Amino acid sequence: MSDLLIELFQEEIPARMQVAAEENFARLITSRLKADGISYETCDVYSTPRRIALHITGIPATREDVTEELKGPSVTSPEQAVSGFLKKTGLDNISQLTTREIKGTHYYFHEIHHQGGATGDILGAVIAEAIANMSWPKSMRWGHSTVRWVRPLHSIIALFDGKIIDGAFAISPDYAIAFGNATRGHRFMGNKTEFAVKDFEDYRAKLMADFVILDRATRKQKIWEGVEAQAKTLGENYQAVADEKLLEEVVGLVEWPVPFVGTFDDDFLQIPPEVISTSMRENQRYFSVLDNGKGLSNHFICIANVEPDDDGKTIIHGNQKVLRARLSDAKFFWDQDSKLKFEDYLPRLEQIRFHEKLGMMSEKAVRLEKLAGVIAKLIGVDEMHSMRAAKLCKADLVTGMVREFPELQGIMGGYYAIKSGEAAEVAQAIKTHYSPAGPNDSCPTDSVSVAVALADKLDTLVGFFAIGEKPTGSKDPFALRRAALGIIRLLIENNISTGLTPLLEASANLHGKKLSDDLEAFILDRFKVLMKGQNYAHNIIEAVAGETLLDMKIRIDQISDFLATDKGQDFISTAKRAINILDTEEKKSSSRIFGDINAQSLIEPEEKELYRVLQEIIPQVEKHIVAKAYNQAMICLAGIKETVDLFFDKVVVNDNNPDIRANRLAVLGQIRICANRIADFSRL
């Protein structure tokens, strides 16, 4: 078995594109290998700012003959479909195709035969094709190249079993980059000259010797350990702020990470800490440092891509100078914005268009104020504070700070509200009204905050559905799926038992629109997606219905837990035997069995006993259902398993006498009614 090593060496790849590029390149290579009948054992992919590398092991030196099948249209398809398939395959005549039956339908197939031979003979074409098919979010041409690539491509390593693969990648009609065995190390600290490699281990070792850590995970660990160590040099009370997104980006910016601690003036700590940390993270890629017990400190940690000769003094000085300018701008915005009362920004919302068909942001603010009042009444929270927070929640969009840092909208509104003397509940609701902004974002729990966050998401969702702007496929330009998920989480995580319909109708009335018929179904669909994401069983999710989302979640929780127990299996057995017989009889008669039970017509002791037990437990089941103690209701039904089993053992349900048969079916119908009050057990 042989190894394959490929490296694409180029100018710096943007950090956000590197992981996707790794995965894309590996997929293109391995899928082509599989199509050509070439097996492999492992495939590892690596990236640094200047390279993408692929190491595949366990490739056979020779390949078997392989037949690839391409499925076409059915033999009864229109002539245009068949002609299109012929064109796709490059064939001239339908007689060149074969046919095969699949589930009663005959389809056309084109068989492609790949001749076996030495694996190395085709690897050049495989690699060149994969490079040509690489896609980038943004790409460029350089020099005389006609190929678009993320950044200028300089060299390509292509080694199979230690030997250079014959091949090249053309970047223009008159120039191609030949495959080779040489690469370069670190741009500044390396030897500045190319060096040859023999295999993957030699490649990785020589890169390390030339100040390049190839493995992303190793670089990531080294960066974070360095950040934590630098924070500790400030004192035991200091701690670096963990920021996974920032860490992942910094990994893609350096090949040889070296951390340094910098400092900024204490005066800047008068600015809200979110402003400082956002400026450091988004503009400079710095890690924030906390002084435990005091909050954000006036220190930061930056990651350089070089080991300087002066212990980092020049790097630290330069970074401190740049950050000082950034924070000076932020302080200016903070001071300027604070000169007005927060409410005074509201008229400026007339300058911001929410949507062409939904009016200006000022109109949205009016709707939110009214809707928050309705929601506050429905869920029983402070109406005055809810309406005040909803009225002001969008005002920070016209402040200088939010225009400079859009990601701080809402957060800055909360600070400006406090400075203007608004109630703490109002300020908190303004600060958190965009939350939850995703599945991992925290959900507001303060009652006023919940009302305002619900109002914002309901207004957006109802408004866009009303004008026909609904998500289609993977397209969701207005983040309506996220808004629906936010509504679901707000209701469930805050134990709000209000139904969707009154909330949606209240919002639709404020828009002056008819409530979209499919909006509630859209939200329920997102609820099911959320439940599946939390690893609940698909059949339980589909079996549950309820008056509210909270009730459905309670049912799913309790049913999932209960069915995992022995009692749960007894319950399923009890309900299933009764429901199966009823379903069979109803199919014969095409009518639903609801008949009343005539106690005088009960003959056998076992059916009398089952009727007696049912009369005893049905009120208990109903009581538990009303209390949402569905597990207790199921325990009641599971407790009659032996009585039900005895009934089926001793009693012939399908008696020749139609009245007796109907009476016995009606007894079983009582079991189904009880079970279906909990969930649709035909789906379980």
Any overview of this molecule?
The protein contains 24 helices and 20 strands. It has 684 residues and is an alpha+beta fold. It folds into 5 domains: 2-63 and 118-209, Alpha-Beta Plaits; 69-113, no CATH class; 216-337, no CATH class; 384-535, no CATH class; 562-683, Isoleucyl-tRNA Synthetase, Domain 1. The strands form 6 sheets. Strands 1, 2, 3, 9, 10, 11 and 12 form a 7-stranded mixed sheet that branches. It has a 4-stranded antiparallel sheet with strand order 15-17-18-16, sandwiched between helices. A hairpin with a 3-residue loop joins strand 17 (287-291) and strand 18 (295-304). Helix 19 crosses helix 20 (566-589) and helix 21 runs antiparallel to helix 23. The chain is globular, with a radius of gyration of 34 Å. The model has no long low-confidence stretch (mean pLDDT 93).
Keywords:
684 residues; alpha+beta; Alpha-Beta Plaits; 5 domains; 49% helix; globular
Shape designation: globular
Cα end-to-end separation = 50 Å
CATH arch. level architecture of the largest domain: 2-Layer Sandwich
Q: Approximately how much helix is present in the residues? A: 40-55%
**Total domain count:** 5
Structural class by SSE content: alpha+beta
Unreliable residue stretches:
none
**Main CATH class of the largest domain:** Alpha Beta
As for the CATH topology of the largest domain, it is Alpha-Beta Plaits
Task: Please state roughly what percent of the residues sit in beta strands, choosing from under 5%, 5-15%, 15-25%, 25-35%, 35-45% or over 45%.
Answer: 15-25%
Profile the largest sheet. 7 strands, mixed
The gyration radius over C-alpha positions equals 34 Å
Total DSSP E strands: 20
Residue-averaged pLDDT, rounded?
93
How many alpha or pi helices?
Answer: 24
